[in-house]
Write a structure and sequence with these properties.
Layout (H helix, E strand, L loop, with lengths): L2 H8 L3 E4 L7 E4 L1 H4 L2 H15 L6 E5 L2 H13 L2 E5 L9 E7 L4 E7 L8 E9 L3 H12 L3 E10 L5 H5 L4 E6 L1
Parallel strand pairs: 3-4, 3-7, 7-8, 8-9
Antiparallel strand pairs: 1-2, 5-6
Helix pairs in contact: 1-3, 3-4
The structure holds adenosine monophosphate.
Length: about 180
């Protein structure tokens, strides 16, 4: 992917200091979503890394992971599976607890989301400390799936999330 195209996407990410708590520089993707060209390039960049590989399901993490995960699943001809915050899913769900850059949280996934041996790509907008993505991976493993890749639009390299997820494959469109 040419640097100029990725720079264009980067130019549509808005930095919001001290949100949601003091000291956090929030990466606001809404200007990118509002710009069809930037959204298209970001999706292309994610899809190019996985297209042609065996991916049975894309797990998207609530909420912003749904935006990219759903679109990516459609491009890869894969299922889309939502990993949601507690109490949102209507059916029986597996649950894991984890810590994020600025909070403690839990994630749930319907118990019948994946078949045993399913190849799964886990997608979210931002990789920060990696706790959220790792929790999603635990849900995948609980159901006998395996994570072929983690894919993010934005990686906050200075928070070391990649180290938490490796040796699994970690792909990110924009690194900070
Ligand atoms: P973590 O578990 O620390 O990797 O945090 C990742 C999750 O929190 C993702 O779902 C992100 O959407 C959100 N997140 C964490 N830090 C930021 C940030 N600086 N800007 C935007 N979203 C963030």
């Amino acid at each position: 992917m040419p640097t100029a195209r990725l720079d264009y996407v980067k130019s549509k990410i808005r930095d919001v200091p001290d949100f949601p708590t003091p000291g956090i520089m929030f990466k606001d993707i809404t200007p990118m979503l509002a710009d069809p060209r930037a959204f298209h390039i970001a999706l292309d960049s994610l899809a190019e890394r996985l297209i042609g590989e065996h991916v049975d399901a894309v797990v998207g993490i609530e909420a912003r992971g749904f935006i990219f995960g759903g679109a990516l699943a459609a491009r890869l001809n894969a299922s889309f599976v939502p990993a949601r915050k507690p109490g949102k899913l209507p059916w029986k769900a597996d649950r894991v607890a984890y810590a994020t850059e600025y909070s403690k949280a839990e994630l749930e996934m319907h118990v019948d989301s994946l078949r045993k041996g399913a190849a799964v790509a886990i997608v979210d907008d931002v990789l920060a400390t990696g706790g959220t993505a790792k929790a999603a991976a635990e849900l995948v493993m609980k159901q006998g799936g395996h994570v072929t890749a983690f894919a993010f639009v934005i990686e906050l390299g200075f928070l070391g999330g990649r180290k938490l997820l490796e040796p699994a494959r970690v792909e990110s469109v924009l690194a900070y």
